Each structure stands twice: as C-alpha cells, then as structure tokens.
Amino acid sequence: MEKLIIYGGRPLNGDIEISGAKNAAVAILPAAIMASKEICTIDNIPQISDTHCIERIIESLGAKVSKNKNTITIDSTCINNSDANTEDVRKMRASYYLIGALLGRFKKARVEMPGGCAIGVRPIDQHIKGFEALGAKVKIEHGAVVVEADKLAGANIYFDVVSVGATINVMLAASLAEGKTVLENAAKEPHVVDVANFLNTMGADIKGAGTDVIKINGVKELTGCNYSVIPDQIEAGTYMIATAACGGRVTVNNVIPKHLESISAKLIEMGVKVLENGDSVTVESTGELRGVNIKTLPYPGFPTDVQQPMTTLLSIAKGRSIVNESIWESRFKHMDELKKMGAQVSVEGNLAIIEGVSNLTGAKVKATDLRAGAAMVIAGLIAKGVTEVTSIEHIDRGYPYIEEKFNKLGAKIVRAKDE
To answer: What is the C-alpha separation between 10 and 327, in angstroms, rounded?
Structure first.
C-alpha cells in the first residue's frame, strides 16, 4: 500500500497536459473486441490502473494486446471466448461494458458482477432492460450476468433514468443487431459521443450521439481502425479547481473547452479568471473566493465526478455554499475527512452545507473513492503543514502520474510506502 505526503501552501504555476479520458477509454477498450476483422490501434489511452485492468481482461478473452506508451493495439480477430470471469472483472465497475460488446459479437456473454467505487447503489437494471428489448435473455447466475440471444433485433428503448453506462452498453450491442434501434432519454456525456465515434470508425452506423435520442442501424460486422481518445474532462476540471484553490496561474492543455463550460462557469462565479484558447484553458486565481451553490446534473450540467474536488475548493470560499448531489446518494463520504482538516461542512441527505473557513490544516486522511481522493489531494495542497493521503489506489484508478503533474506546477507531493 502507498500514500501521498503533501506539503501544503504552495501556489501552482505553469502548463499541464491532460491525458485521455478515463470514462471513454474504459468503454472503447471493450468495444475494440467487437472487431472481427483487422486490428484496432487506439491512441491517447490514459496510463491508469483501470485501463490496465481492462487490458488484462481483454487478453484473458484471447485478444492479442500490445502497448507503446499511450498507444494500444488490440487484435481481437482470434477471440472465441465470451466468458469474462477474472478477478479484474470483479473489481472494476466498467467491466460491465464487456456484456454489450460480447453480446453484440457472439450473441452471448457471461460477465462477473462488476465492482468499482462505493458511491451508492448503482444498479444495472437499465442495461438489462435494453438487452432484453434487443431480444436477449438475461439472468444473474452464481454472481455473474449471463446474456444470450438467438439473434439481436433493433428496438425502440426508452431509459427510465439518464444512464451513461446503459446508453453505452446497449449502443454496443445494438451496433451488431439486425435493423434499427432508437435509444431515447440517452446520456449526452462527451464520452458517450466518443464511444459512438469509435464504433462508427469501426463501421457502425450511429447517429445522434450527444443528444437524448440515438439512432443505430445495425451492421453485420465491425472491423479494426485507428482512433484517438478524447481528453479527460474530469482530470482537466480537477487541475482547474486545484489552481483556483492554491492560487497561481496554470494553462491546462489538450482539452476541449466546451466540455468544461459548467466547471468554468462556476469558477468564474467564484471570482476566478478562466480564459479559453483553442485546445487549452488558463486558470488564474489571485483574489478572494466567493461561495456558490452547485447542483450536479447529467451533461451538460455540472459533473458529479467533479463535485468532490469542488467541495474542497468551496470549503475555503467566503460565505456559505450548498452542494446538491443529484446523481449518487453516497458521494459525500469525503466530508468526514475534510472535517479532520478544519472544514466546516455538514451533510443533510443529498445536500452538503459548507461554511467557508480561512484555511485548512494538514492531517492524515483517506481517499474513500476515486474522486474523493482527488478532493483530499487538493485539500492537502491548500492546507497549512503536511497532509498524508492513504488508500491512494483509488486515485491511481483515474489520475495518471498525479504527483508528477502537480510537482511540475510547483507543488511538493511525495509518494511513499504506507506501513
């Protein structure tokens, strides 16, 4: 086990490069196994434990995988196994994309129930609803999701709730179904669009991704392609928030500014300068921060994955802030850790009430999940004294080289063994 030791109180200045989007990559990698001809070469894959995990799962199914830095080549033409049952499958949430990918290609799949961060109940009922509408029979058997169909046929599917996972998973299977599928109340997140673009590059026929109605004309086969994953909206937002919290001026490169608009708007409302320039945003923080109210919403609303880092920033903003977490019901676990550092926060159901304090103080805290871990790193960066963040395996699931990137900006973070 490892921990991060953070020496706080240093402003951030300089340039930082954002990696490929985690939430896109963990769906695009499973989608690559749908190519029954030729190989897939995918660039801008983030070097995080979640993508390494998916790569190992794909190999266990029989694909040939090779890597060169951020580029991965997948030859799935020889896959003949639709049973994903390794320990890697059980420990990460995004492994459920294997269900849609394998079902689409082989018309059957057996995938161990997925794990991931403990941020509330995250059922896969909408995924199952979609698969059944396409003609598959679904059952939970010995801790695994088992799906099978004589054939997949297009259908009109209305999601009861907006679900990124269900939208992508059903889109995967429907790409190789017979006829036309229409997904209504679909998720509009950038990574949904990225997966659709990847599938189209492989030969799929998908229109409307990025809107709430996606239309998919099934094709007979998908083939390999070359593709580059979009930049990570959440990683970019995290470094923007960290700059606002620590003070200084940082240019965040390799981003799509439109994906960051909801984050930029709240930072500007707090008194932070945010300048867009092509594929970068520059964040400058010099003055007093004002508290704001936030409600997390599906894209293009304020992203739930940035809520936890944002609450750290709000903990040192003047006045009262209220955060309404409308996506996940257990995404305030980091509040108890923030309290150890002097934050004045309280939680009432899905609301967090934050009274800004002048400063935080260093303490030993825990990363309770991935984005909570990022929140605690930011807390350590702004605190007086030294902060130790433990359970950083959560952080490594989504933030490549986090200490190296922050140190390049003037922070002082050391990775050490946690005895």
So the answer is: 33
